[in-house]
């Protein structure tokens, strides 16, 4: 099948390609570093059993400016949403499962950038008993524990809050460069710590990205296939997205997300998030959602 250039590129972006997309003059050691990061991602994934989930299939692509990819990466999730998820934590021989009710507000404050992210997460046992209730406001940089429990508290709650941010709120900033590899776009930030190495592709959010790769004229969202975050000591965590699903709204989003933490400072663990219900919220949540006692 013949492929075509994305109309979005043809209309407003093609003139930026020569300036924004990495050329042959990009230092080879830069991309050797990116390839090394993805090799580390493969090695980290290979240490565990392969995930039995279906990946999305990238369509044939044309060069995309790095700035455009960064914008789409940072908006890969809707601005405000709520979802229900089953969370499975594999920690050595121990497996814990809970149901999470998550509300995320990631919209600009009065249209200004950078955005202020905040979320509220309630964790319940599979039998419906509340395990914890926490809120996070990026502006304050900490979490508010509304309902701690004897089973999950302290450092465990901080880890849960951190992983929610890793999955739903992590953004690219600073000097970012992009390159094509096959039908994937590689987006790397290596000028600051931690470094982010993301692999994905643009897709039409109203078309199933796991279907055969056809030309899709409205490629308006970035599908994050995999990501590795590293520092000068090596990998911190990896993330993979699977199983595109159309929830109540018009968009396809990942229904299964697997995060592997390298265990820096503790022990390695695997976190599997299975989204069972997802709703986009048209207006930002009221303040009491995130500050119920304030």
Question: What's the short version?
Answer:
This protein has 294 residues and is of the alpha+beta class. The protein is 20% helix and 37% strand. It folds into 2 domains: 7-74 and 177-275, no CATH class; 80-84 and 95-169 and 283-290, no CATH class.
Report the average pLDDT across residues. 77
User: How many runs of DSSP E, i.e. beta strands?
Assistant: 12
- Give the amount of beta strand, in percent: 35-45%
- Sequence of strands across the biggest β-sheet: 5-4-3-2-1-12-11-10-9-8-7-6
Distance between the termini: 58 Å
Would you identify the regions where 5 or more consecutive residues have pLDDT less than 50?
Answer: 1-31
Number of domains: 2
Radius of gyration: 19 Å
Order of helices and strands: HHHHEEEEEHEEEEEEEH
Descriptive report:
The protein has 294 residues and is of the alpha+beta class. It has 2 domains: 7-74 and 177-275, no CATH class; 80-84 and 95-169 and 283-290, no CATH class. It is built from 6 helices and 12 strands. The protein has helices spanning 7-13, 17-20, 28-46, 66-74, 155-169, 287-290; strands at 80-91, 94-105, 118-124, 130-137, 142-145, 177-181, 184-189, 195-203, 221-231, 234-246, 252-261, 269-280. It has a 12-stranded antiparallel sheet, sandwiched between helices. The N and C termini lie far apart (58 Å).
Kindly list the characteristics that best describe this protein:
single chain; alpha+beta; 2 domains; twelve-stranded antiparallel beta sheet; 12 strands
Question: How do the strands and helices of this protein lay out in sequence?
Answer:
Layout lengths: L6 H7 L3 H4 L7 H19 L19 H9 L5 E12 L2 E12 L12 E7 L5 E8 L4 E4 L9 H15 L7 E5 L2 E6 L5 E9 L17 E11 L2 E13 L5 E10 L7 E12 L6 H4 L4
């Amino acid at each position: 099948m013949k492929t075509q250039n994305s109309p979005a590129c043809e209309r407003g972006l093609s003139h930026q390609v020569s300036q924004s997309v990495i050329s042959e003059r990009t230092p080879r050691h830069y991309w050797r570093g990116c390839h090394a990061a993805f090799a580390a991602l493969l090695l980290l994934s290979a240490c565990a059993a392969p995930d039995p989930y279906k990946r999305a299939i990238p369509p044939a692509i044309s060069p995309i400016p790095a700035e455009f990819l960064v914008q789409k990466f940072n908006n890969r999730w809707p601005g405000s949403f709520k979802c229900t998820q089953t969370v499975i934590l594999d920690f050595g021989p121990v497996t814990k499962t809970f149901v999470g009710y998550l509300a995320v507000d990631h919209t600009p404050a009065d249209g200004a950038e950078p955005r202020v992210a905040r979320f509220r997460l309630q964790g319940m046992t599979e039998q419906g008993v509340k395990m914890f209730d926490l809120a996070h406001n990026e502006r304050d940089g900490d979490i508010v524990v509304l309902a701690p429990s004897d089973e999950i508290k302290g450092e465990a709650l901080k880890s849960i809050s951190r992983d929610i941010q890793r999955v739903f709120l992590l953004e690219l900033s600073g000097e970012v460069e992009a390159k094509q590899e096959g039908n994937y776009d590689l987006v790397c930030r290596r000028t600051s710590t931690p470094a982010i190495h993301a692999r994905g592709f643009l897709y039409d959010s109203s078309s199933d990205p796991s279907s055969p790769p056809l030309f899709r004229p409205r490629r308006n969202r970035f599908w994050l296939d995999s990501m590795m975050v590293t520092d000068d000591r090596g990998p911190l965590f990896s993330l993979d997205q699977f199983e595109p699903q159309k929830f109540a709204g018009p968009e396809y989003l990942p229904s299964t997300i697997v995060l592997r933490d390298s265990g820096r400072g503790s022990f390695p663990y695997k976190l599997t998030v299975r989204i069972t219900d997802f709703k986009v919220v048209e207006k930002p949540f009221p303040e009491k959602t995130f500050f119920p006692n304030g």
